[in-house]
Design goal:
There is one protein chain. The chain is mainly alpha-helical. It has a domain at 1-39. It has 5 helices and no strands. The chain is elongated and about 125 Å long. The protein starts with a helix and ends in a 14-residue tail after the last helix. The model has no long low-confidence stretch (mean pLDDT 78).
Length: 126
């Protein structure tokens, strides 16, 4: 049994335990589907938090943290410079050319500092 099927089975079993008729069960299913479609909106969340004063302090802290994060994000976006893709490509190309030039210089220096080859001895044939 999949998780979805198990959920459906449990839901119908609970409705049967509560003694609901088929019409009441259908009404409950429709209600659940409506709530699921709408989800908990911001108004429902504010209503929930207002009904529990203990969580208002935590909500204030969480709200200020979210507000600070949002303002920080907006501030970063406002100061961010626009990047031209063509300019970025040309800068990357220049960096690659510089790396290759450095590599060529290192190779040339390595060949300059090589030990000279020893000459093979010349044998004369009599």
């Amino acid at each position: 049994m999949t998780g979805r099927e198990a959920f459906k089975f449990g839901f119908l079993l609970r409705c049967a335990d509560e003694g609901l008729s088929s019409e009441q069960t259908r009404h409950r299913i429709d209600t659940v589907l409506e709530k699921r479609a709408f989800g908990k909106g911001l108004f429902d969340l504010v209503q929930f938090l207002a009904s529990y004063p203990v969580t208002v302090g935590g909500t204030a802290v969480a709200g200020s943290a979210l507000g600070g994060a949002g303002l920080g994000y907006l501030g970063a976006k406002a100061t961010e410079q626009d990047v031209d893709p063509e300019e970025a490509k040309s800068q990357e190309l220049v960096a690659v050319y510089q790396q290759q030039a450095d590599r060529a210089r290192r190779n040339a220096a390595r060949f300059r500092y090589r030990q000279p080859r020893m000459k093979r001895p010349q044998f004369s044939v009599l």
